[in-house]
Amino acid sequence: MEHLAQEHLDAAGKVIAVHLNYPSRAAQRGRTPAVPSYFLKPATSLALHGAELGRPNGVELVTVEGEVALVIGARTRNVSPEDAWAHVGAVTAANDAGLADLRWPDKGSNLRSKGVDGIAPIGPVLLPAQELDPHALRVRMWINGEPAQEDSTSTLLFPFAQLVADLSRLMTLEPGDIILTGTPAGATVARPGDLVEVEVDGATLDGGHLTTGRLSNRVVDSGLELAPYGALPRLTDADRIDAWGSPEAAGIQPGAEARDGARPGEGAATPSSEDTRPASALTPELTEKLRSVGTATLSVQLRRRGMQNCHIEGLIPTKPGVKAVGTARTLRYIPAREDLFKEFGGGYNAQKRAVDSLRPGDILVMDARGEKGSGTLGDVLALRAQVLGAAAVITDGGIRDFGPVSGMDIPAWGATAHPAVLGRRHVPWAVDETVACGGAAVVPGDVIVADEDGIVVIPAALAEEVADDAVAQEREEAWVAERVAEGHAVDGLFPMNREWRARYEREQDRTRQ
Fold it and tell me: Once rounded to an integer, what is the mean pLDDT over residues 107-132?
C-alpha cells in the first residue's frame, strides 16, 4: 500500500464517473438503468486528502458523494469482463463532490458542476486491487463524524469488471486513469465548516482486511466570484430536494416542490448528477398566477404577441374540470415497424425512460402523430407519473385503461380511449426533443397550461409576462362583468372606450390606495 500523492493525480489522463450503480441510489431516484452511463471529468477536478472543498460566492449547495475509485494499472483496450479486473492497479476512496447550483445548463455532462478545480478528492491510501475481492468492498461517508452513507460493492448494478470492459470497447484506458464507480443512497449536501470523510475497506483474497483510511476534506467558502460570462448559480426547491435527498432534509414542506420549477435534463435521467432534463421557467409565484387565469385568457395574450399556433387541440381529459400547470417534457413515437419495435420497443424503452425521469411539476407531452389506433398511456405508467409528482400527461394518441386512469389523481388528456397496446401502431423513439402534439409544436421546457377550455403552450421566455398580463386582463374583465350585471350595455364597455377606461382606472387607483 502507498499513500496517494500529487504524482498520482498528475498521471490521471481521464477521470470517468458512473451515473447510477447502486440499487439503493437507483431506488431513491426511482429507476434502474439497463446499462451503465458515464460522464467525463477533467483531471484538474481531483484533489488530495486534506484539501479544502471551495464553495464560490452565490452557490448554495455543495453535494458530497462517497465512492470507490479505480485506478487503471495497465493499458486497457477492448478487454472482456473476465479479463478486465486484471487491468485495475489500485482502489481508493473518492468524494465526487459537486456544485448543484451549476448543474442546470450542461445537459448531463456535469462539466461545471463536477469539473471545478479540486472538487473531487481521492485517497488517502491506494489499495492494491489484485489483492482485493472487488465484490466485497465497503464504502462509507461521514459528515462531522455522523454516518451519512454505507453500502457494499456486492450490490452493484454493474460490477467493476463490467465497467472497465464496457469503457474499453471504445476507448483506451491508460495507466493512471480513474473510474469513479457511483455512489449509494445517502449522498447529501455539506455546508462551509463541515468535515466530510469517506473510507473504502474490504476483504483481501487471502482473508485479510485493507482500508484506505478516512479521506477527510472540509468545505469552505472560497470567496470566488463567478463572472457573468455564462451560466450563473440557479436552484429550485426540486433541485434542493434532489441534492439533500428528501424534502425533510432540505427543509422544504413535502409537496412544495410540485409547485416549483425543474432543471435541465435528459429523458433517461432522474434527479441526480446525471440530470440532463430541460430547465423550467416556473416558480411557485408564477405557477399560482397561471393557475388563477384561464387558457382562453392566456390564448389572447399569446395572440397579442403574434403567437397564433400554441394550442394542443382535439384531446379529451380524463378528469373534466381539472386544471394543470407544468413544465413540458416530451416523448416522440414513430410509426410501428416490426424490426424497430423488436429492437427499441421492449425493455427499458424511451416511453419508460421518459416516465421514470419525471419530476414534480413536469407535464409529459407525447407526440403520437395524432394516431388513435392504440394506447400510448396506460394505468401503470400513469400511476408512475403520479407517484413521481408529475402535473399531467398529454398525448395525441390513445389512452388504454381509460377508466382506471380517470380514477387517478393525475389528470391526462388524450385523443381517445383505445384498448390496443403500444406496438400496434407505435415505436417509442425519443425523449426531450421538440415534438408536435395536437397540432402544436412543443419544446422541452415550455410551460403548459390545461383546463376545461383546452391546452396552451407558452414559450418559457414569455411565461412571466404572459401570466402578468393575463392576470390584469381577467381583473379588467371581471370589472366589466360587474358593470354588465348592473344593466350597462356592452357597446363601448366591452371593449372599453375612453370614458369607461378612465372610470376603470380611477376605481383601480382607489382600490390600490
Answer: 94
How far apart are alpha carbons 381 and 452 in whole angstroms?
24
Q: Is 499 helix (H, G, I), strand (E, B) or coil?
A: helix
Could you give the CA distance from residue 360 to residue 175 in angstroms, rounded to a whole number? 43
Non-local (6+) Cβ contacts of 499 within 8 A are: 492
State mean pLDDT over 92-113.
Answer: 91
Alpha carbon separation from 259 to 104, 212, 361, 505 (Å, rounded): 18, 44, 6, 33
Identity of residue 220: V
Q: CA 19, CA 164: separation in Å to the nearest integer?
A: 15
pTM of the model: 0.55
* Cβ–Cβ < 8 Å for 426, 377: no
pLDDT grade for 253, boundaries at 50, 70 and 90: low
Strands 398-399 and 375-377: parallel
Considering Cα of 75, then 78, then 83, then 89, what sign does the dihedral take?
positive
| pLDDT averaged over every residue in the chain | 90
Given the DSSP bridges, would you call strands 416-417 and 398-399 parallel, antiparallel or unpaired?
parallel
Percent of residues in the chain assigned helix, strand, coil, to nearest 5:
30, 30, 40
Cβ(328)–Cβ(365) under 8 Å?
yes
Please, are residues 196 and 190 in contact by the beta-carbon 8 Å criterion?
yes
Q: What is the pLDDT of residue 513?
A: 66
**Total length of the chain:** 513
CA angle 165–171–175, rounded 5-degree value:
80
- Cα–Cα distance for residue pair 445/236, rounded to 1 Å: 14
Q: How confident is the model at residue 449 (pLDDT cuts 50, 70, 90)?
A: very high
- For residue 206, the SS3 value is coil
Looking at residue 270, what is its pLDDT? 33
